[in-house]
């Protein structure tokens, strides 16, 4: 996360430097005033600096503490989180089998309560990890903001105000949902195939190659639900999802998770009848 936060600072600094360089060129060679260059004067016929000016303001806004933390959480949600939570779900779900304690827990607790408890503990862990990630990101972005706020000349910029903390809740909810979905997917896949270390490279390869080689993105349904409620500031903007109705996307996700859990429960309960 620190690398992404420092990358946001580098992007903001580059955007501001580019703005100053273009403005100096327009002023010296074209006789532009700054207000005319950004299209704010009454006699402005063009605005050659407008897009650069707006982009610089948005980039600097990404250095606000809450906005920066939300940006980091969005990167986690759409890029890093699915792989991390899939891995966590796969390893956590097979820990009992690895240490040969599963059969004893099945006898002591019963298979159905044990299966529900494992899924519930996974959801709880994902939620706790995501909240911790948000707080950690907030600490990083606050430190970066305090360290670099005086290093960037914002006199020519219109920088949006920082987000309020409640505005970060949609991103937090989306990240938790993404984490739960992929953690349960990892749990089900690892339980069915019993070899999490074999399936992880295949998942990682497919997760990145499928969107590149085709028009389908495994995160598309999640992005359909998230996109209308998330504001992307500071340079990171994931591709817009393919058009799917929100209710259909939610139904398909719920049906997919329920189907995965049902198949996993049916398969492992039959296995347990022979191994306990």
UniProtKB/TrEMBL annotation:
Keyword set includes Transmembrane: yes
This protein's UniProt keywords: Membrane, Transmembrane, Transmembrane helix
Record-annotated membrane-spanning stretches: 72-94, 115-148, 168-185, 197-216, 246-267
Domain of life: Bacteria
Name this polypeptide is given: Uncharacterized protein
The organism of origin for this protein: Streptomyces globisporus C-1027
């Amino acid at each position: 996360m620190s690398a992404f936060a420092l990358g946001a600072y580098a992007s903001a600094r580059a955007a501001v430097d580019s703005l100053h360089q273009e403005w100096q060129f327009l002023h010296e060679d074209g006789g532009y005033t700054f207000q005319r260059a950004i299209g704010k004067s009454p006699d402005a016929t063009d605005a050659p600096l407008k897009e650069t000016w707006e982009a610089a303001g948005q980039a600097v806004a990404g250095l606000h503490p809450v906005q920066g933390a939300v940006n980091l959480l969005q990167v986690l949600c759409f890029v890093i989180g699915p792989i991390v939570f899939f891995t966590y779900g796969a390893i956590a779900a097979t820990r009992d089998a690895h240490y040969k304690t599963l059969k004893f827990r099945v006898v002591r607790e019963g298979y159905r309560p044990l299966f529900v408890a494992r899924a519930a503990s996974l959801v709880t862990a994902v939620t706790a990890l995501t909240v911790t990630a948000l707080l950690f990101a907030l600490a990083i972005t606050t430190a970066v903001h305090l360290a670099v706020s005086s290093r960037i000349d914002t006199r020519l910029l219109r920088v949006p105000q920082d987000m309020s903390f409640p505005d970060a809740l949609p991103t937090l909810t989306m990240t938790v949902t993404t984490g739960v979905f992929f953690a349960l997917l990892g749990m089900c896949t690892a339980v069915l195939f019993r070899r999490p270390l074999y399936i992880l490279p295949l998942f990682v390869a497919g997760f990145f190659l499928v969107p590149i080689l085709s028009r389908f993105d495994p995160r598309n349904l999640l992005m359909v639900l998230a996109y209308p409620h998330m504001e992307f500031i500071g340079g990171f903007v994931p591709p817009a999802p393919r058009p799917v109705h929100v209710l259909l996307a939610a139904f398909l996700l719920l049906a997919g998770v329920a189907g995965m859990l049902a198949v996993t429960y049916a398969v492992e309960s039959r296995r347990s009848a022979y191994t306990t």
